[in-house]
Structures are given as structure tokens and as C-alpha cells.
Design a protein that fits this description.
Keywords: Transferase. This is Glucosyll transferase family 2. One of its GO terms (molecular function) is transferase activity. The protein has helices at residues 13-23, 45-48, 64-74, 94-104, 127-135, 161-167, 182-190, 216-232, 238-255, 265-281; strands at residues 3-9, 32-37, 55-57, 80-84, 88-90, 108-118, 146-148, 156-160, 195-206. α9 (238-255) crosses α10 (265-281). Strands 1, 2, 3, 4, 5, 6, 7, 8 and 9 form a nine-stranded mixed β-sheet that branches. With 292 residues, the chain is α/β, with parallel strands linked by helices. Helix content is 39%, strand content 19%. It folds into two domains: 3-206, Spore Coat Polysaccharide Biosynthesis Protein SpsA, Chain A; 216-291, no CATH class. The N and C termini lie far apart (44 Å). It is globular. The protein is built from ten helices and nine strands.
């Protein structure tokens, strides 16, 4: 089985280099690493020359979806493509467990793992904190549990490439820039072709680095516009979208009273309200964030 790792990156040269260092420690190394930077200086090219596996840098327009789509095209000859965020540190056996999982059940088209610590829920984790969390994992080799999943978590998504390439199912580039919920959209469109699963032996830490992320205003707009766009294209249910939107708007409303320094709750709430006003006027469009 040929396993590729793909990373779309933006403005995180140092953390990306640290992530590649951890990738080099995999018990089962990737057959190829595909990187797609938003800008040429997002990658330390000197660091790549010492990587113990082939590396290809591909180019595209800036945005999570076009960058990932460029990686899909470049990796089309592989069997499995693992998308890691540039701030996700996989456990050393992650790719070995990936290979075992996809060889055991050929009906699996999407898989995601267990995030044992997620810095996105707070101020973010340092490299040392992430390494310590992996080293301190209380259950690094759990009894295997494979459960059905609604979608993969964007920081660690594994795809069998055959159905993607054969049916030309790509990330939706009408979801611009950070492309919030693009992972859900792609996974749900792949559901007719096989199983979507979560596997507890695929483990890692998401640092949740704040650098390189979209503004609070833009994200707040996307928190309303993107779920409703996905409902319109029928990749998700209205019930799912309303629950997601309601939870985020409520969190932003409460958080705006005394916002933490690492989350722009007031900016997100402002974006939420702008999107609601566009919904009422009939002008709601995910691409509006390109003009903000």
C-alpha cells in the first residue's frame, strides 16, 4: 500500500518544520509527503532536503480547499492520502495503524483518529507540551475500536484515493480561505462510496496554533454562511447545520462579555450578525469573506 501525507500550510514555517520532524519518526514512514504552501516562504526548503522520504511541493491559489485539491491531484497515484494540519503531531505508530486499518477493511473510504489533546480549545499548545502529551498518553495502544463517524476531523483526515479520483470528488473551492466545514462537506459526499470511521488507535495531538488563522470577523461570517451553503447543496442536514450555528452563536454571544485573549469572540459575533443580516436580505454567500 502506498501512503502519502498531505499538508496545506500558511504562515507557520517553524511549526511545520517541527511537524515534519515528528513525521520522520513514524514507525511506518510515508511513501511521499506533499506540501502546498499559501506562499513560497511558508516552507523551509533546506529542512526538506534532509527528510527521510520523498517530498514534493505543489502550488495553488491560497485557501484550504484549493491547496488540498492540488495535493489530491499530485498524489493521485497513491492508495491512501493522509491530510495532517501543519500543527498536528501524530503518534509514532499513526501511519502503521493507518495501513493496517485500510488493508483490513477495503470498504473504508474515510478515517479519522483520536485527538488526545486539542489546543484549539484553549490558547494553543507549545511543541514541548504536545510532545509531553504524546509521551504521557494513558492508553497509547488501546483495544481496537472502530466506530462509524459523521465526518473526519480536519486536523487528521485519511482518504482512500480511488473513489475521490474516480468520481472527481474534491474540496469545494466555493468555501474560500479557511473554508470552515470543508472537511465535513467532502466526507459526506464520499459517504455513498464506503464507510466513514473513527479509529481509536490513530492518535495524535493538535497544537491549535493561533498564527496563520483567519480573522474573527471572517470566521464568524463563515459560521453562519458555510453550514447553510452545505444544506443548500445537500451534503448536510438542516438539523445538523442549525445545531452547529446555534452553538457557535451562543458561545460568541456569551464569550463577548469577557472574551479570552486567544479567541476573538466579539469579532466572531460581529461576523455572525453580518451573516444573519445577509441571510435576511437574500445575499448570504460564503465567498463574501474575500471582501472583508
Amino acid at each position: 500500500m502506498k501512503i502519502a501525507v498531505g499538508v496545506a500550510t500558511c504562515g507557520r514555517k517553524t511549526i511545520l518544520a517541527a511537524m515534519i520532524d515528528r513525521l520522520a519518526r513514524q514507525e511506518r514512514r510515508p511513501d511521499h509527503l506533499f506540501l502546498c504552501p499559501a506562499k513560497a516562504d511558508d516552507i523551509d526548503m533546506a529542512r526538506l532536503r534532509s527528510a527521510p522520504f520523498p517530498v514534493t511541493v505543489v502550488s495553488s491559489l491560497q485557501g484550504s480547499c484549493p491547496q488540498r485539491n492540488a495535493i489530491i491531484d499530485a498524489a493521485a497515484g497513491m492508495d491512501v492520502l493522509v491530510f495532517f494540519d501543519d500543527d498536528f503531531f501524530p503518534a509514532a505508530n499513526y501511519l502503521a495503524e493507518t495501513e493496517a486499518l485500510f488493508e483490513t477493511d477495503e470498504e473504508i473510504v474515510v478515517a479519522t483518529g483520536e485527538v488526545i489533546r486539542d489546543g484549539i480549545l484553549g490558547p494553543g499548545l507549545t511543541v514541548d507540551e504536545a510532545d509531553e502529551a504524546l509521551a504521557a498518553d494513558a492508553d497509547p495502544d488501546p483495544i481496537p475500536v472502530i466506530e462509524a463517524a459523521h465526518n473526519a476531523y480536519g486536523c487528521n483526515m485519511i482518504f482512500r484515493l480511488r473513489p475521490i479520483v474516480a468520481n472527481r470528488i474534491y474540496f469545494d473551492e466555493d468555501l474560500p480561505l479557511y473554508a470552515w466545514q470543508e472537511d465535513v462537506d467532502l466526507c459526506r459526499r464520499l459517504r455513498p462510496y464506503g464507510k466513514l470511521v473513527k479509529f481509536n488507535r490513530l492518535r495524535g495531538v493538535h497544537l491549535g496554533v493561533k498564527a496563520g488563522r483567519t480573522s474573527g470577523l471572517r470566521l464568524g461570517y463563515s459560521q453562519v454562511a458555510n453550514p447553510l451553503y452545505l444544506v443548500k447543496k445537500r451534503s448536510v442536514s438542516l438539523k445538523w447545520a442549525l445545531k452547529l450555528m446555534g452553538g457557535n452563536i451562543a458561545s460568541n454571544l456569551v464569550g463577548s462579555v469577557k472574551p479570552p485573549p486567544y479567541i476573538d469572540r466579539r469579532g466572531r459575533l460581529q461576523g455572525n450578525l453580518l451573516a444573519v443580516s445577509h441571510l435576511l436580505s437574500g445575499s448570504l454567500d460564503p465567498k463574501h469573506i474575500n471582501r472583508m
